Amino acid sequence: MIGGVYLPDNQYQLLLEKQLWTQRQQAQQEAKEREKIHHQLQDQFYQHRLHELENTVLQQKRLLHEQKQRHLAQLVPQQQQQIDYTKVNWISQPLQPGQNDPYYAVAPDQSPSRQLPQIIKHYGPPDIFDASKFGLAVWKRDTLKKRGFCIERIIISDYPTNFIETWVYFPLPYARGDDVTTKLLADYMALDPSLGYDSIKQMIFNDATRIDNAIVYIVVALRLLIGKINLAEARQLLPMILNTVNPVSPSYNIQASQLYEMEICQMLNSRIPVY
């Protein structure tokens, strides 16, 4: 009986099931609402936590950056105080008049300790520097390229002669044929004993006693290799333009070395793909 009215058993059963179904639906809806509220609270919590972590990371990065800047500010003056390129323990001296130099006559600045400050003045500080007896200084490719130079590598060592080693990237044109390349390389090697070629690195290199001399050897070698002059002309030209960079020569030109280096860059840029 419901509300004072008797119902048949089957109708009564249906009514109860309907009420139970309605209650279950309400319970499920309430559960969904509670779960939704729970997720919203969780999302707010995680977002708040994530925001806190992001702020912490930013603060740490800021502190690290400030520490690095303070360290660099302290380091630079220390390095400037520690490295005095004019004070080295290099002992090698230039050959004196009457001694035999296999490559070129003596110039007044033809010693490692005198050439070092000149190279630094033009190319900037070296990447590697050892001021001790028989030490060396090295300028690497990336450093020279960033400073606008076309030389691949420069090495100066504390030895009495041929102590400056200069490298330039120049792949020989093998596509023209092995015979042509072999003849070209033979002429290059015959130009001067201070010149060499590394076929693995595809670089020409030179040993000299002055950086200006090294530039002269390279510019004449490149003129020969690209076909501007032949071997006989190169042999005749080499001592003439060496005199233009020798301070004791009547033909000395203070700007000659810089002009030759500009010519080297022009020849390399016109012949060699960028890599």
Q: How would you summarize the topology of this molecule?
A:
Elements: H1 9-82, H2 112-123, E1 128-129, E2 136-139, H3 141-146, E3 153-157, E4 164-169, H4 178-191, E5 195-198, E6 203-208, H5 211-225, H6 231-243, H7 256-271
Antiparallel strand pairs: 1-2, 2-3, 3-4, 4-6, 5-6
Helix pairs in contact: 5-6, 5-7
Please describe what this structure looks like.
- The structure is a single chain.
- Helix 5 runs antiparallel to helix 6 and helix 5 (211-225) runs parallel beside helix 7 (256-271).
- Strands 1-2-3-4-6-5 form a 6-stranded antiparallel sheet.
- It is 55% helix and 10% strand.
- The protein contains 7 helices and 6 strands.
- It folds into 2 domains: 1-82; 112-271, no CATH class.
- The chain is of the alpha+beta class and 275 residues long.
- The model is unreliable at 75-81 and 101-105 (pLDDT under 50).
- Strand 3 and strand 4 (164-169) form a beta hairpin.
Q: Could you list some keywords that capture this structure?
A:
elongated; 7 helices; 275 residues; six-stranded antiparallel β-sheet; alpha+beta; 2 domains
Count of domains: 2
Strand sequence of the main sheet, in spatial order?
Answer: 1-2-3-4-6-5
What structural class results from the helix and strand content?
alpha+beta
Measured by DSSP, the beta-strand proportion falls in 5-15%
Order of helices and strands: HHEEHEEHEEHHH
Assembly of the depicted chains: single chain
Number of helical stretches of at least 4 residues: 7
Radius of gyration: 40 Å
- Major sheet: 6 strands, antiparallel
How many β-strand runs? 6
Distance between the termini: 98 Å
Shape: elongated
